[in-house]
Amino acid sequence: MATPSARASCPLLLLPSSPPACPSMLATKRTQRRRRILSCRAAVRFDRRDVLAGLTGVAAVGLGAHPGLAAAEDASVVSCPRGETVTDKLLACQEAGQKPCPPTSPTSAAVDFTPPTGPMRVRQPAHLADAETVEKYRQALAAMRALPDSDPRSFASQAAIHQAYCDGHYRYGGPAAASKDDAPFDVHFSWIFAPWHRMYIYFYERILGGLIGDDAFALPYWNWDAPAGMAMPAIFKDAGSPLFDANRNPAHLGAYVNLDILNAGDTVIPFDPQAVQNNQVVQNNLSTLYVQMMRNKKAQDFLGDKFCAEYPSTVSSGTSGSLESMAHTSVHIWAGDPGSSTVGNDGQEHTGADMGFLGTAGRDPVFYSHHANVDRLWHLWATKLGRSNFDDPEWLDTSFVFYDEKPQLVRVRVRDVLDAAALRYSYDDRELLRWMDARPTPLLPKGTAAAATTRRSLLRGAAPAPAFPLTLTPGQSVEVPSVPMPPRAQKTPAAGGGTEPDTVLVFDRIEFEPGRGGKFDVVINVPPEQAAAAGPRYSEYAGSFATLPRGGNRPGETVVAALVLPLDEVLADIGVGDEDGAVNVVIVPRTQGIKIIRPPRIEIRER
């Protein structure tokens, strides 16, 4: 469908179309049954005759199963020139005024956000928070829980915000979707993820402070990126506290958190706050954070790609960045109770509540401290690591409305929340950032066994390649041999001080059931029989595809997303150079139910 040079890096697609909720998608009318395969950063133009000839009824086994799509294989590939500006005027909650949709304003229309002028609120690590802060949080949350559900400041209403935005309740009707109805919208799987959650946590914190009359109240954050904080904080484990939630994994309450969840041989190690260890889980966690924070230097890799809805028939809206897909997703799954059951907006039962299912995650108070740490990591990425956020006006002018402590509806834009200091909060970072020095080391001897694997295959002829579409099975690693590498010497310096070109590994068609979630790892130049052991602690690990279970789709419906992994550091650390010409890409399935429709490719990304 796309030319070999296509940079298809942010599709998220619905198969077949019906109202999904998470991840974020733009759908066609429910009455249609169409398989959409367009992406944001590289969309394929269909010939109108192919579309009219019958785009329906494509078999789920692959693109070549339908002549209309096969004909589109030669269509030109174009980049999505701009993302979409999302505003509250383009969003509508289906059950307006009823849970989980927010209540109608008891005062007036939304007012524009103005920067606060009060005292600086210092968010402390939950495991180190002083007794006064913990007691204030208990009192504030007790007051929030005591409010009637109809009050937009109540805990039920606050939890419902997250449910509404990712369980199929919101619909998007921007200009690019003017001919469609019931277009689902979600704040995950695009560049909206980080700023929306920053807004959400900001107003949650403001409401808590307002309920106890303390405008200096600051939400404790779950410091799971520091070894001493790599466990469920004690303040959330008292069954008599308003901070407690019964729907948590009982096997994990006293264990080290696993930031690379769902790997084969997941180890549960009891956590001892008096003797924090440098054990296998801690080392793996620190390396996971290194990959998430240090390798993903560009905004689209760390924050997620643009929310895009420009093309006729598209149902894509971006792909998640490492901030969303790595440690954040693992903590959600780790904390949720696998024995719980909840019914999503799709009418189906889902396990993993509360934290492990996006529709119920906001019902656990630890969710807000978890996302305060996600927000802190974005803050560190942009400040301490000196990375650059997007400067696209479509991102900066995207806006949402939230109730504040009065309660008053407030319209806040992304550009309003880029500076934590301007929002009058900061982070107490007394713990060292040990993940900055946790660079992975090679599993195989650098420059010898790893590179020799590829050179031998080139000399002897390529090994048989797996057939695509490829359905993944846990325990069966799949090697894609001799994936060509464009010479990195072909990179041209960025003009005008822009970002430098980089080498990326692209999977542009990954199909999965959103209600189940899923994960697979990707490693480079490791024999398949050793690949399952090549996790984030090792240089050969390139990254993972991971999604949280979410509702909003009809039973059996699938979506298609993409994965783009920066490769320059991986190749340097395992000793692969331009002279090697190709690498072996090994796919390590961690869950059932994922299909990779097209083989991976390596590209030089110019922006």
UniProtKB/TrEMBL annotation:
Organism: Panicum miliaceum (Proso millet)
Gene Ontology molecular function: catechol oxidase activity; metal ion binding
Gene3D superfamilies: Di-copper center containing domain from catechol oxidase
Protein family according to the UniProt entry: Belongs to the tyrosinase family.
Pfam assignment, any one: PPO1_DWL
Keywords, alphabetical: Copper, Disulfide bond, Metal-binding, Oxidoreductase, Thioether bond
Region of interest: Disordered: 478-500
The keyword Flavoprotein belongs to this UniProt entry's keyword annotation: no
SUPFAM superfamilies: Di-copper centre-containing domain (SSF48056)
Cofactor(s) listed in the protein's UniProt record: Cu(2+)
InterPro entries the record matches: Di-copper_centre_dom_sf, Hemocyanin/hexamerin, Polyphenol_oxidase_C, Polyphenol_oxidase_cen, Tyrosinase/Hemocyanin, Tyrosinase_Cu-bd
Protein name: Polyphenol oxidase I, chloroplastic-like
